[in-house]
Amino acid sequence: MLENGGLDWCVADVTSSSTSAGWAQASTYANPFVADAAKRSLVVGTIDFAEALNAAAVANVLRSRHR
Q1: How far apart are CA 62 and CA 11, in angstroms?
Q2: Which of 5, 6, 16, 28 has the fewest CB atoms within 10 Å, i.e. the most exposed one?
Q3: Cβ(44)–Cβ(17) under 8 Å?
Q4: Alpha carbon distances (Å) from 12 to 33, 56, 62
Q5: Containing H/E element for 49?
Q6: CB neighbours of 4 closer than 8 A, spacing ≥ 6?
Q7: In sequence order, which residues have a C-beta less than 8 Å from that of residue 48 and are 6 or more positions away?
Q8: DSSP string for 3-29
């Protein structure tokens, strides 16, 4: 951590959850699980998808892109 810039680097490195929350807010079929942005984790991003979506299909696509 220190070699990369200390606490500031660490915070910047883990704030990627805001990217997924922003995407979900702009989406017509997803929403951030925690509505209040001030209460969201910087590390974990949880997205609620519309009931009409096939959750297994979404999970498969996400898993295939993460490998």
Answers
A1: 24
A2: 28
A3: yes
A4: 22, 31, 23
A5: strand 47-49
A6: 10, 13
A7: 24, 30, 31, 32, 33
A8: GGTTHHHHHHHHTTHHHHHHHHHH-SS
Residues contacting residue 11 through CB under 8 Å, at least 6 positions apart: 42
Residue 5 is which amino acid? G
Q: What is the pLDDT of residues 6-50, one digit of tens each?
A: 888 887 777 666 778 888 899 999 999 999 988 988 778 889 999
23: nearest Cα among 52, 45, 55: 45
Distance from C-alpha of 44 to C-alpha of 20, rounded to nearest angstrom? 10
For the full predicted model, state whether its pTM sits above 0.70: no
